[in-house]
């Protein structure tokens, strides 16, 4: 498996999922994307895929879903998994997908860009991104944010891999960054196999067992199809 993080965070958030998968005998690679631009992140992810010793299940959280939608065209990628993630179509970006939120939908507390990079309001980070994460860990996530490049936010997918490869999607029902209704709409458009779990946007941190269980189901289905 190759796990791809989203914006404002780094790959360390996958630790719990990584441990669950490794304990069950799966090889795992964690991508550390700079999140400066989509092109850079796709290149970094493709290098991780190239380093895998076998076919890859490519997993993306949040903005990482944009990255896997593009990088997933690599021939070594057999399956895609979206965890509360953006699943853009051709010529779509995160900027386009969040441009017209539904009435009453929560608005992520993204601060105005500085030098081409975005951050979340630290005081509102936990409530919006990590409401079910332990308070001290959520505070650490807020204080250790990785600036997210506007160029990454605006990066457009050229050829979504989900159009050619099987995909799965885990909806986080309590997400206040990507509304659950938007997650379901993207998942259905992608023809993904959809499952849902209670959880915030940081469901992969707060409930790694549920996330790992889905990835392992995908791995089992992959083996069964061979």
Automatic annotation (TrEMBL):
Chain ranges of the AB hydrolase-1 domain: 1-213
Q: Show the Pfam families listed in the entry.
A: Abhydrolase_6 (PF12697)
Q: Name one GO molecular function term.
A: hydrolase activity
Which superkingdom is the protein from? Bacteria
Does the keyword section mention Hydrolase?
yes
Q: Which UniProt keywords apply?
A: Hydrolase, Plasmid
Query: What protein is this chain from?
Result: Hydrolase
């Amino acid at each position: 498996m190759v796990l791809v993080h989203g914006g404002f965070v780094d790959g360390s958030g996958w630790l719990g999922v990584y441990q669950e998968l490794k304990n069950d005998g799966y090889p795992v690679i964690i991508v550390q994307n700079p999140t400066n631009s989509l092109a850079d992140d796709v290149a970094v992810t493709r290098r991780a895929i190239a380093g895998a010793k076998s076919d890859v299940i490519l997993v993306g959280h949040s903005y990482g879903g944009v990255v896997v939608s593009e990088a997933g065209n690599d021939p070594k990628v057999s399956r895609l998994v979206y965890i509360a993630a953006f699943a853009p179509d051709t010529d779509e970006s995160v900027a386009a997908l969040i441009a017209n939120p539904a009435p009453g939908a929560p608005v992520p507390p993204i601060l105005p860009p500085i030098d081409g990079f975005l951050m979340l309001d630290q005081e509102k980070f936990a409530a919006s991104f990590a409401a079910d994460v332990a308070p001290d860990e959520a505070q650490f996530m807020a204080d250790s944010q990785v600036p997210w490049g506007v160029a990454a936010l605006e990066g457009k997918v050229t050829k979504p891999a989900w159009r050619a490869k099987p995909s799965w999607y885990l909806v986080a029902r309590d997400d206040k960054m990507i509304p659950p209704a938007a997650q379901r709409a993207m998942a259905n458009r992608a023809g993904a196999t959809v499952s849902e779990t209670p959880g915030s946007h940081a469901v992969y941190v707060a409930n790694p067992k549920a996330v790992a269980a889905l990835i392992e189901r995908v791995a089992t289905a992959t083996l069964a199809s061979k």
